[in-house]
Amino acid sequence: MSVEKINGSDGSLERVILQGQGKSSVEIYLYGATVTSWKSQGQERLFLSSQAKLDGSKAIRGGIPLVFPQFGPGELPQHGFARTRKWEFLDAFEHGESMVAQFQLTENEETLASKWPYKFMLHYTVDLTATTLSTIIKYENTDTREFSFTSLMHNYFRVPNISSTLVTGLAGSIYANKVTGADNVSEDRENITVAENEDRVYTNVPGTVSIKYGNQQVTVRRFNFEDVVLWNPWAEKAAEMSDFGDSEYKNMICVEPGTVSNRIALRPGQVVSCGQLLTDDEFDDIAAANSEDSRHLLPSDAEDARTTDKPAGARHPRTTSLGLLRGFAGTIVLLMVSALLGLLAAHSYFHGQTDAPNCAMSYSRPQYIEQTEFGRSWTRYSTKYTLFLYREGLVNTQDEAFRIPVLFIPGNAGSHKQVRSIASSTASAFADMVKADPAAIKHGKIGYDFFTISLNEELTALHGYSILEQADFVNDAIRYILSLYPKTRRQNKQELGAGLVDPESVVVVGHSMGGVVARTVFTLPNYVTGSIQALFTLSTPHNNPTASLESHVEDVYSSINQFWRHGFHNGTLSTVSLVSIAGGNLDSMINSDYTYVGDLAPPRNSLSILSSGINDVWLSLDHQSILWCAQMARKFATMMVQIMDARQQSQLVPLDQRMGIMRNLLYSSIEDDFATRTPSEPRKTNTDDYRLVSLSRSNGIDLDPSSMRASLAGTGSRSKKQKVLHLVALDGENASSGSSGNERIVQILYDPMLFTTVHGGNSAAQLTEPAFLGCKRSSGDAIRSVGADGDTGIEIDVNCEAVPMATATKLPLKRDGDDPTKPVPTLHYVEVPVADMLQYDYVGLEVPVHFSSRGFLHAAIVDRPHQQTQKPGYLRSTKIKATASSQALGLRTRIRLDVPESPFFVFRAKLALQRNKKAVDTSATKFQPIIRQSDGRQFESKFWYDQQTVPLAIHGRGAYMPSDDIANAGTLSQAAAWNGLYIDIWADADHFTDLEVALSIDWYSSLNRTVKRYDMALLALSFVWVCLVIQHQLRTWNSRAAIFPSSLAAIESLIRNGTLAVVLGLGIMTPILQELIAHALQQAWSPATQAAWSNLFMGVRGSGWTLGLVPAVLLVVSLGFVALQALALTMICGLAAWLFATVARWKDGKAIDQETGKANAQYAAGPAVLATLGFVAFVSTAVPYQFAFVIIYLAQLITAARTMALAQIAGDTGMRQLGNYQLGLLLFWTNSLPYCVPELLVWVRNISVLWFEDAPAGHNLVNMAGFFALRMASAHRIVPRLTSSGLLSSRSSWWLHTATYALLGAVVAYAWLFSIRRPYILYSIANAVSAWIAAIQLVELALRLCSALIKPSGRQCPEADIPMAEMDSADTLLHRKQN
């Protein structure tokens, strides 16, 4: 691209030639600033007569002559003097893909002496790209008087044949025929042809106008010009013109945009810009749509089709549909892609769960007794909240509480009635226990009193102040509950027995946010020390709020997490137990990652577990079913009855014993090293105590009904003995362990049904578990043992004693779809290191004589299978393979997947076990393979039975640090350390040899995990996009053409100019760079620094390229969400504007005059000030500022609709741009609406229950001042352009310009790094940005007032460079339009 200036030294006129891209060029003569040549793609598009005078003797015939200040004949020469004056060449330069030239014309003595004697300045800009040419004139009144003018760009287009040339885009307009004198003629032709002398002035032109010939067309798009002139002299007129060839009319046509039917009026200092965009293409109505080539000129590539007086949809289906589709192709594709991703995510969220629900329904007979005495004297919340005592019908019907108190706290929008399932199950479990053991009451097992509170179904998850209010009420309720028992315990002493003490604490059960309320109780001043010793939480998000829509929630979490973390170290909470149970994959309400409490409390005081790993539950549970699921309720009841002890002041067994009971009941006993032992009762026995002693001739014992019957045959002499002792010799185990280097273990797997007997046809079954013994040889009387084949063996005499062993782990044989009302069959598995048995000669297994007709037992001494550690290739590809050889495949095989703690992906593990053909031929498989997923923290485990493909989903510690107490990050429990994912496989070693595992990512199921963990990210990233949209709009507005594009056009430009690609790249690279930098500086950084670094952006959990997948998806969806908002706002305001304009036209414009006429022109300051003061007073005293923001938003919506209606009626692009500005602010503010919802909902709910006490301090005017100020400032004016040609000096403009973009850039950066975790801060940021823009407008207003005040002195403050229509009042617009 280049610029050539020809000085005319050879006697020719001076001219400038611009060479652009793609063989494009333009030639401009300084004489008249006339464009005489425009070549696009190497082809000339303008007509220049061969007879044209290029010597300055008269106006140049052809190209683009400029008509000003008069169109046609009049007091001045034909078409005014601008086309016959020499213009000043200012500059020519390259701008992006454009070449730009600028010219200027001002008054001189000749013009001042003419019939139009005004001072003026015309600034002319010619902008050339590969396929477009834009010409814009900025008209400025530099006089002290108002003047008016008409103006036009007299385009001469070259055509191959006028007879085959079509002009489109004028249908539906009105024209005056200057040849025939006809006026107000309606143009009905969609395709206009010229076959005679034509000279028409078209008004009310609906959209773009195109000149089509062959397969080519040139499209003319107007900017601030109201009219279009169509002209061809034809033969008779051509012959009369000396500077026009007689037959040249056949190869030209004039399509001239201008304002000629009305005059443009400018007040002193006022400026208006008008122009056109010429586009050369191949039958593409809007070739330059939203392209970077023309974005600096027009607000949108399809703007003209949307912002003219009449929609061209019916008359111009080709222009409207094809033009708009092509003009917004990027946005349409974005909406389609984001909609597809959103629908897939939603479908995955609701239907793509990896676990199948299989809960049995629990039933109860609830009775709720309101505690009416718990009134105002006890709590100030007596009119807002209520306390009830639960009773189970037919089981516990007393109206008074005298047992062990339990308080249930419902969660977000929860009901007090949700206690019924766990209370009913606990009451039934207690009744069954007493029925089986009446003496249990003497040991403090007296049952529970379940209290439950009604919290008015408040939205606790969204409102931090409600958490504090509810916690305050809970403390009052606990004081009241404890006050009941001294009296009731004495009254029921006979039933309860002696030795009981009055309770000093209450067991608390919290569901969902009720658990957070319960933990908050400890931090309040009215908490009675020691009044809570046990806290059970169900599906409670302990570490982070589920929805950070307001700062109070975050503050509460920060406070309580810090308190709890330090409370166990300073002794405040040393006797408190905290149990967190969560539902896992099926819980769509909260992220189960946040239920882990290992980072908040030490292992001595806490445990965390997902329901899928709880013995006898083995199910994932949704947010509500964790309360009513029969399996879960029974397990909870069993735990509650085992830990009660009314002889203690806490009413529970001591802490260590309590935690041990709960761990044994909830956890599977499989540990990483299988070294945990449980104490055994001291017991000794010898050979004479058994009916049969069997000594295995190998390293294993295999029992089934047939072998047990065979071995007992012939033992009648010892029939009174009810047990059998099976022995395995340990001879040589010590040596073999030392020589091989492999640890030897005893594996025991059995079906408990083998030892279950049914007595006398009764359905009651008795289960006797086998005992594990260590035996030594004795010198007493020996007996002859029996071998595995039934033959008598050697003489043997042993003494045995019980040894500590790991609690048998239950392995559920549960398939999806099994009847949930039936018990789940299980196998039991135990592992013991041989190293713990080396002081004995034999391993002894004691089993009962009575056995059933089915089941098996297998025990063997084997090498511990090597734990295979695999680094999954999904970080580079998507599959791994892990193989265990037949020698290593024992009863249990463990594979550790060295995966990061990244809970964003669901894996599909496909297992292939090779069968041993010889074993298959000889006997049947005892059991099908059992698979278990677990982690090293016992937080999550899951079982599958007889499945070849299983889904593996990780619940880690969430995306962010589990507490805001980052300064104490180094004090986190070491038990929380992540050590990968474990897969345990139990298979019949006699029937299976090789094992192969293939791992792949389940992309579809992974989508719902992204939704759960990053639902708030949609708000934060949408705000980032909206800021980029505003920045693009302001950048375009501050460009030379002074265009404020629509929000949709700005989004389209962000897609096309590469911003979307850049942001996507940043989204993908940010977490990867976080991980790389954190890894590189791991040794240099403190734990607090590492935690703070990991908490940036989306939080880092994991490693590898997959870290960038989640941000990329969310960024696309969030931009689509913003585009959808912009489309919805445009449609809503457009519909309202159409209705408003229709009513106005129906009333002949009176509605506009009455509502927006002089009221806009002469602003009524008095009423406005009074209204403002009233509004401020209302917000300061009666309503929260969030309510005020909603009012401001609705007022802005109405204002935008009215502005668009004015633009339709007046046909003025300036008003249209003002509407774009107001809609842009609406889009910017739309993303702040969600942060107002919590406070408004709580405020409305409090009013509904007549609660006015202790209302949160929501009357801070600062929190809505920015929105309010910008709402007032934007009602009539666009933000001033920050250019040197405006009100401010060049230096001031530069500083404001730089500061504004720096502010928006800083906002984007801050929102990018911090707001995903805390999105509520975006409201304050939006308020601050609004205040900044409002301040700029106030500065402009002050300077305009300055101009008005000093005008009488002869000086003036130059006004801003904004379109004229934006400065005129509505009645002036209508007057100018209608006259």
Automatic annotation (TrEMBL):
Membrane association type: Multi-pass membrane protein
GO CC entries: endoplasmic reticulum membrane
Ranges where the GPI inositol-deacylase transmembrane domain occurs: 1018-1336
Transmembrane portions of the chain: 324-350, 1112-1140, 1161-1181, 1187-1211, 1223-1244, 1294-1314, 1320-1343
Reaction(s) this enzyme catalyzes, per UniProt: alpha-D-glucose 6-phosphate = beta-D-glucose 6-phosphate
Localization of this protein: Endoplasmic reticulum membrane
EC number: 3.1.-.-
Similarity remark: Belongs to the glucose-6-phosphate 1-epimerase family. Belongs to the GPI inositol-deacylase family.
Protein name in UniProt: GPI inositol-deacylase
Organism listed in the record: Coemansia guatemalensis
Gene: BST1
